[in-house]
Design brief:
- The complex is a heterodimer of chains A (275) and B (306).
- Chain A has one domain (18-184, 193-273).
- In chain A, α1 crosses α5 (114-142).
- Chain A has helices at residues 20-33, 35-56, 69-100, 103-108, 114-142, 154-175, 183-196, 208-217, 219-231, 243-273, and strands spanning 63-64, 67-68.
- Helices cover 70% and strands 1% of the residues of chain A.
- Chain B has helices at 46-53, 75-81, 97-107, 112-125, 141-152, 171-186, 198-204, 222-230, 241-250, 273-279, 292-300, and strands at residues 6-17, 20-31, 35-39, 61-66, 69-70, 82-85, 159-163, 190-195, 207-212, 215-220, 233-238, 255-259, 262-267, 285-289.
- Chain B folds into two domains: 6-226, P-loop containing nucleotide triphosphate hydrolases (Rossmann fold); 232-289, Alpha-Beta Plaits.
- In chain B, a hairpin with a 2-residue loop joins β4 and β5.
- Chain B has 306 residues and is an alpha/beta fold.
- In chain B, strands 6-7-8-3-9-10 form a six-stranded mixed β-sheet, with helices on both faces. Chain B has a four-stranded antiparallel β-sheet with strand order 2-1-4-5, covered by helices on one side. A four-stranded antiparallel β-sheet of chain B has the order 12-13-11-14, with helices on one face.
- Classes of the chains: A mainly alpha (275), B alpha/beta (306).
- Chain A binds chain B through residues 1-9, 19, 22, 25-26, 29-30, 33, 101-103, 105-113, 274-275, and chain B through 17, 54-58, 72-77, 79-80, 84, 86, 88-95, 99, 103-104, 106-109, 155.
């Protein structure tokens, strides 16, 4: 049973067992208590965006790379949902559980260790991103904006993309002195990504240096690229890379950076919680 | 029920936070079936010690074992046999009373059916049965406290850690918790409690460890400690040079100490003070039984709740 041991604080890979599931399940149970309220934003927001940007702005922007503007932004909305669902769950949501409710302290007094608590939170963040994007995909489908059956593969992409944003958010949670601190990553990172990560405005129309930066450091770009190819069936050349290379980069980038932030966020949270 | 088997052993146990030493090379044993009290003012190191026992805080130096297992290598096994009722309210506000217990049971891999059964039993024992579907916000402070203790028992622990179980409760609430602690002791649970209430330690604990500034300053059975350090009775009188001088003449072998604006006289036998009272008829003097607070005061020269 040494898997649940809690050895001294040293840099090493997190020690996780199946008990991560119980932490995930706690959050799922809370979510299901008020599921109708939780699903509502994911249902209404994409409808508003599609109406305002798709039909409104779409009258001026006739088509992008051969598809209508409303069709072009639909996968962007799915990607944004992935980011919002997981990032906010593991910043504001996790901070409330950690700091105000002391839920993590309560769980750490049981056989579950701190690493498993954080891993459960991250998996839950990824799950929320998946739930939310499933709803947005349904809305997008209802608008008739899905062109390939591959859109179903967007659900696992939402999960792993969600895990990436959850881990990123959890790093901020580990460093946050108070809840207002989250205004910084929200306005300096999340909002810029919302606008320039190939979501509402084609990244291909930006200067090439900006394209390279977006591909190098903005996680949402990769989620949006994958979403576009899975929902609409094609993607444009970006940052000098051919479409297949853009997609290969997206998969590779998400995989590597997710692992890095997953481990880093657990390490930072352990440093914060274990005294 | 107290056996001589050492369930918890601490040797030179030390905890440092940066340059601050919260627990300073302490040694103690906890025996199976006893109620051991850690007594001391705020910041003495009580909570830190308890946190090391349930593997929450890593030990800086020294050895600490629970049931023969080292806390730094066997936290999973130790946490499985320990129940923790922390000082602060960390009940889950997102769930009802009974769901709090059921969700907590899941963290111990207790099956759903078994968890439901234990939850009801515990709510009955802690007189919270009618509150089972209420949300945590609807509970009084005393009820929350009892639910935290109930939650600590969900894994049927051999060792129960109660960190200031009655702080912030009204007298009635305290007595309910005390009764429940007593019946848990009858069931053979080993209890470690921290408190800064002397009467609580005297009422519940088989032994107390008086701790101050991270160091153990005395260990023993409450009544014996009182007898040994402060005697049977204490006479208190407002400070006054004349009276102090007279008291010293009257009771040459008594222990007379001045705390703030008060003179306290400690003696080993009953009945000595009656003579003094008669001698100073106009002076407002009071006689009371010596208690653990006097022991603490005597040992540290300080009041406990400062």
């Amino acid at each position: 049973m040494k898997e649940s041991s809690n050895p001294p604080l040293v840099s090493r890979l997190p020690r996780l067992t199946f008990r991560v599931w119980t932490v995930w399940r706690r959050n799922f149970d809370v979510f299901m208590k008020t599921w109708h309220v939780n699903f509502l934003p994911s249902l209404i927001e994409p409808v508003l965006y599609l109406l305002a940007f798709g039909f409104g702005l779409g009258t001026f922007v006739t088509n992008i790379e051969g598809i209508s503007y409303i069709q072009w932004i639909a996968p962007g909305l799915v990607a944004i949902t992935v980011m919002y669902g997981s990032f906010f769950e593991c910043t504001y949501g996790s901070f409330v559980r950690m700091y105000f409710q002391r839920t993590f302290d309560a769980i750490i007094a049981t056989p579950i260790n701190v690493e498993e608590v954080i891993a459960g939170e991250l998996l839950w963040g990824a799950t929320r991103a998946t739930f939310n994007s499933a709803i947005v995909l349904a809305v997008v489908a209802a608008f008739g904006l899905i062109s390939t059956p591959w859109f179903l593969a967007m659900l696992p992409v939402a999960f792993f993309g969600g895990l990436l944003f959850a881990s990123l958010g959890m790093c901020f949670t580990a460093l946050a002195p108070n809840i207002d601190f989250f205004n910084y990553p929200t306005f300096l990172l999340i909002t810029p990504m919302f606008l320039i990560s190939n979501t509402f405005i084609p990244l291909a129309s930006f200067p090439s240096q900006l394209q390279t930066i977006a591909l190098a450091v903005l996680p949402l770009t990769h989620v949006a690229d994958l979403s576009r190819v899975l929902v609409v069936g094609k993607i444009e050349t970006l940052g000098g890379l051919a479409p297949e290379w853009v997609l290969a980069l997206a998969v590779f980038w998400i995989a590597v950076v997710t692992v890095l932030f997953f481990v880093l966020s657990i390490y930072l949270m352990k440093r914060r919680l274990i005294k | 029920m107290v056996s001589s088997e050492g369930l918890i052993k601490a040797r030179d146990l030390t905890k440092k936070f940066g340059s601050f030493t919260a627990v300073d090379h302490i040694n103690f044993d906890v025996y199976k079936g006893e109620c051991l009290g850690f007594l001391g003012p705020n910041g003495a190191g009580k909570t830190t010690t308890v946190r090391m026992i349930y593997c929450f805080s890593p030990v800086t130096e020294g050895d600490l074992s629970v049931a023969g297992m080292n806390v730094s290598t066997h936290s999973g096994e130790i946490k499985r046999m320990v129940g923790v009722a922390p000082q602060e309210d960390n009940l889950d506000p997102d769930f009802t009373v009974i769901k709090n217990l059921q969700v907590y049971a899941r963290y111990f891999d207790i099956s759903k059916a078994e968890a439901a059964k234990r939850a009801i039993e515990l709510l009955k024992f802690f007189q919270l049965e009618e509150k089972q579907t209420k949300s945590i916000d609807e509970l009084s402070t005393g009820m929350k406290r009892r639910l935290i203790i109930a939650r600590a028992l969900i894994n049927q622990p051999q060792i129960l850690l109660l960190d200031e179980p009655t702080t912030g409760l009204d007298p009635q609430g305290r007595h309910i918790v005390w009764d429940e602690i007593r019946s848990l002791l009858k069931q053979g649970v080993t209890i470690i409690l921290t408190t800064h209430y002397m009467d609580e330690a005297a009422a519940l604990c088989d032994r107390v460890i008086i701790i101050d500034n991270g160091k153990i300053i005395e260990t023993g059975v409450p009544q014996k400690l009182i007898k040994e350090h402060v005697g049977e009775d204490v006479l208190e009188v407002a400070f006054n040079e004349v009276i102090l001088k007279a008291l010293k003449e009257e009771l040459p072998d008594a222990d007379i100490e001045i705390f703030g604006d008060q003179i306290r006289v400690f003696v080993n036998r009953h009945g000595v003070f009656e003579r003094i009272l008669k001698k100073f008829p106009g002076v407002n003097m009071s006689i009371r039984n010596a208690n653990l607070e006097d022991v603490f005061l005597k040992l540290t020269g300080r009041k406990l709740r400062e």
